[in-house]
Amino acid sequence: MKKGLISIAVACCLIFGLVLFACGPEAPKTIKIGINAPITGDIPKVGEGTKFAAQMWLADVNAAGGLDVGGKKYMVELVIEDNESKAESAVKVNTKMITEDDVLIIVGPQSSKQAVPAGEVANNYSTPMISPWSTNPKTTKDRPYVFRGCFLDPFQGPVVAKFIKKEFGFDKAAVLYDVASDYPKGLAEFFKAAWEDLNGAGSVVAYESFTTKDADFSSQLTNIINSGAQFIFSPQYYNEVALIVQQAHQLGWDKPIVGSDSWGSAETVQLCGKDCYGLFFSTHYAAAAAKGATKEFIDRYNKEHGYVPDDVGALTWDAMRIAQQAIKDCGTITGDLKADRQCVRDALAQIKEFSGITGNMTFNEDGDPAKCAVIVRISDQGEFEFYESVCP
Amino acid sequence: MAFFLQNLVNALQWGSFYALIALGYSMVYSILMLFNFAHGDIFMVGAYIGFGVATGLMVLASLWAFTLPGWLILVLTILLSMFLTSFLGMFVERVGYRPLREAPRASAAITGLMIGIILEILILWGMGTQRVSFPSLIDTVTYNIGGVFITNKKIMIVAISLSFMLALHLFIKKTRWGMAMRAMAFDYVVVPLMGVSINHIARMTFAIGSALAAVAGILFGVAYPVLDPYMGIIFGWKAFVAAILGGRGSIMGATLAGFLLGFIEIFVAMIFPSTLRDLIAYSIVLLILVFRPYGFFGEPYSAKLRL
User: Fold this and answer.
1) Which range of residues forms the domain containing residue A67?
2) Nearest C-alpha of chain A: how many angstroms from B40?
3) pLDDT digits (tens, 9 = 90+) for B137-178
4) Do A147 and A157 fall within a single domain?
5) How far apart are CA B289 and CA A85, in angstroms?
6) What is the pLDDT confidence band of residue A28, given thresholds at 50, 70 and 90?
7) How many whole angstroms separate alpha carbon B61 and alpha carbon B168?
């Protein structure tokens, strides 16, 4: 009994000591921006792109002597937290950043799986949040404090369906998606609805699913091959894309496999190799044919980090600049966090025709921009080639 | 028919992994009467070690400017990784289990969980967060046999797994070490009194189990060439299910149950919507356990059960 108490006391002292150690002196007056990113977990490349883009933005701002708000310069501090690519961790990270780190605005989380639940937290705490990459409608729906930097899945689904119809003239589709993740599940449903609109009921001949962390898709793919489908639509993240495409080819599939914006990672081709050459997917921007500010960003990123940024990097860059614009438009930073957050949120809603590197943005009443989608082809050198652009 | 056969081939490959990993669970259980819950993560580390060895061999070969054929690299990778991973298994036993051998079984069980988490974080820390792409050592050749697509890798995976299982079976039935293991499984209180060291046997069991996990890890990397530090968790659980289903402590049972689990998963997805795959598959497993609570080859040795 006594021994137990002593060991508990020792453990408490250790933890308390660590906490004291972690608390440094008060920081000087700065603006804090929270970054909620998947640094570890299923899609670390996405987290890395987020972090790099945000840090490039920060370097720019602080090199200019800070962020100019109403004639006064404020240094900016980024609070970058890892959500481990899990929904529950993204919620925790948002709560921590809002209640403990006192951030003015949050950029992230990226994938809908985390952005949908994390958006709820931001909205409840009346803190503005911009998700650069989340395309699921639920992220911003009925949440006045939540915005996004990209198009939506109800738009992306039909874009892909129409593109395949026009390009190949197919009428029998197969879908393979992760039923345990908001983004693939939502997009699979929108695609199915759009495809059946075009080709009539029953034109999706195989609608197969798996759950996150599965590595073997042979039974689903065998079903798909057996169903007589003419192509597979698979809105999966880059780590699964490699496995799905390779396994399909090993089972004798030689028809097209089409993807969505989650394919646009710098790592897709690296993991997938030659199997992915010649495949199409829809996304936010194409690095290979970029011009102007977009090209400037790509070149700079490439120089600093050694690879061409994926769409996440570009969208995060835009989201950071929108946040900057909104803070500027707000006019004053009072120091009263509640009032400042409200002010930034109102300024965000007012932004008109913001010219970003992934397209122009004006938020509608849901906090969603109307943007164009790009169809990209993976070239025989493994590069993302611009194929065509589809606007709403 | 081709559709059915195709699924059969898929299931054979998938079941091999479960069987190889379930063997490790089962062997440790038969000796120490505890489940080594770090086993799924040892499988993961085995895959990473395999990745390291294979990459290292390829770099060495290119440095000294001679060409190693892919299959030779693969064979060397498997052997070297088995060797290295067996040390990991022995280390886990020494650090995590031996000090707790007289402790309640529940304490030893959670040790495994904690070691598992530590291994995941170590790999995460050492390898970074990037996915690792397992090198493609042999080119994939796809054979079309009457509409059934079989790759050379699939054949190789099933063949290698089966030969290791056979080797283990012979080792346990024909050698003196194997006899000592069987004796220890029969009674771990009396047998040490006869001069068989439980520490030696426990260490050997962990070494063999971990070496088999390394084989599974490398073959997994060959079949599904995307490695991540958390890949062992769910996989470890499912192999654990196979070990229970086979009968705790039964080598034969673990092998058969591993393949059975693979078949159930694949064929459930063939017949039912794939969304319900795990729901239906594991309901079937549950049902089997209701009727055979000791698994296929397990014996009701309740007097010895200390959990």
Assistant:
1) 30-151+291-371
2) 14
3) 888 899 998 889 999 999 999 999 999 999 999 999 999 999
4) no
5) 35
6) very low
7) 32
